[in-house]
Amino acid sequence: MSSVNFRSSPSSSSSATGSNSSYSSTSIPQPQAKHHRHPDTDADVAVAVATASFEIAEEEFDHNTESDGSSAGFAQKFREVMMDNQMVINTFIAGGLAGAASRTVVSPLERLKIILQVQSTAAAHGGSGQAYTGVWESLVRMWKNEGWRGFMKGNGINVVRILPYSALQFTSYGAFKSVLQTWSGEPTLSTPLRLTAGAGAGIVAVAATYPLDLVRARLSVATSGMAVQKAGGGFTAEDAKLGMIGMTKKVYRTEGGIKGLYRGCWATAVGVAPYVSLNFYIYESLKSLFLPSETTSQFSEPELALRKLSCGALAGGTSLIFTHPFDVLRRKLQVAGLSTLSPQYNGAIDAMRQIIKNEGFWKGMYRGLTPNIIKVTPSIAVSFYTFETVRDLLSSMAQT
Asked: How many CB atoms lie within 10 A of CB 151?
């Protein structure tokens, strides 16, 4: 008596033979060999027996699979999908946490940057002067007027916005790189294609989360105490008390619905696309220079962390120099029409023309650059470091 064992894997109905542990096995008795049988006939019988065993094993496996029940089958399918997409899921989670951590660390500077960008000059509006001048003086004033809550004002909605924004940005960047790699056939993407992947990631993230960004900007300005309350416009004392939902409702109700919530979106996308492209490109380039894969094991954990943080800080600061004017334009458009803060603009081109005419290019388009650089360098450093740390941790947990 002899037997033939078959092992079936989850991805196929049957597979190769010869395994000690099998999903299903079938023993088929072979006919008694007779001494006068011709060798060719013996071979034919062996082939026939093997074929019959294969077919019986396949039918048995299919029957067992169908009798498992729909809930067990669904659970198995769900586990397979999760395993197949584990890297994408890890990237999404790590990207969201990276964004939340990075923005919370620099929340006071983020709010100050917005205030400095949108407030108008005294000459332009006949006021007594700007309420906020200088980084450190403004931070001290913010602390005296509002305390810790002033530093964190708007950070809640910022975290709500940045979680999906950062998650989508990191995830879509990987997706765009994979698509472009398949399309181009290049094992390593060229510089233009890497920049294209970063631009696509930035646009996807902006389009998905822009209303939250606009509402956050409104909340930051409304509670800053610099908005003059007059009948012509601006924020009132009631506006300063509005939360995220209340401000969203007000913008939707008074500024044209969805159109109001997406005011300045295209200018933001135009600015964010090159910024995200440069961020990813410069970070990856610096990392390959300062942290080549073959020497990574030579560094201690503190030195490795410091090198990663330095790469992120340099990438963020360098990218910002090229893209800060787009950020100013975005903020101006987000508060356009509030006459005590900013004039009415007929689109991004008109806004840029008026800003340069009234304030000059460097003073107008680079308003708020200093707090922005102070904010961006640690923010991007923490973002990339947190992303890689969380992603690697999730990957190691999945393997155990």
From this structure: 17
Cβ pair 207, 240 in contact under 8 A: no
d(CA 255, CA 276): 29
User: Residue 393 CA to chain centroid, in angstroms?
Assistant: 18
Q: 86, 398 in Cβ contact below 8 A?
A: yes
Residue 75 predicted with pLDDT over 60: yes
Chain centroid to Cα 303, Å, comes to 26
| Residue environment code for 90-108, b if the CB has 16+ CB neighbours within 10 A, otherwise e | bbbbbbbbbbbbbbbbbbb
Which one of 33-37, 99-103, 252-256 scores highest in mean pLDDT? Answer: 99-103
Domains located in the chain, CATH noted? 1-68 (no CATH), 120-391 (1.50.40.10)
DSSP structure class, residue 282: H
Give yes or no for residue 371 having a pLDDT over 60.
Answer: yes
Dump pLDDT digits (tens) for 203-232: 999 998 888 888 877 777 676 655 444 444
Q: What is the rounded CA–CA span in Å between residue 326 and residue 87?
A: 33
Contacts from 49-56 at CB under 8 Å and sequence distance 24+? 49/4, 50/4, 52/28, 53/4, 53/6, 53/26, 53/28, 54/6, 54/14, 56/26, 56/28
Output the six-digit token pair for 132: 């906020």
| Residue 152 pLDDT exceeds 60 | yes
Cα 337 to chain center, whole Å?
Answer: 31
Instruction: Confirm whether pTM is higher than 0.90.
Output: no
Task: Render pLDDT for 345-357 as a digit per residue (tens, 0 to 9).
Answer: 777 788 888 888 8
What is residue 44's predicted lDDT score, i.e. its pLDDT? 53
- Are 391 and 90 within 8 A, CB to CB? yes
Residue 77, CA distances (Å) to 5, 157, 293, 338, 394 in order: 26, 36, 36, 54, 21
**Residue tagged 């964010």 (tokens):** 272
Q: Which residues of 251-273 are buried (b: 16+ CB within 10 A; e: fewer)?
A: bbeeeeeeebbebbbbbbbbbbb
Q: Tell me how far apart the 2 most distant CA atoms of the chain are, in Å.
A: 117
Tell me the CA distances in angstroms from 87 to 95, 170, 396, one per residue in order: 12, 12, 11
Out of 109-123, 276-290, 376-390, which region has the weakest mean confidence (pLDDT)?
109-123
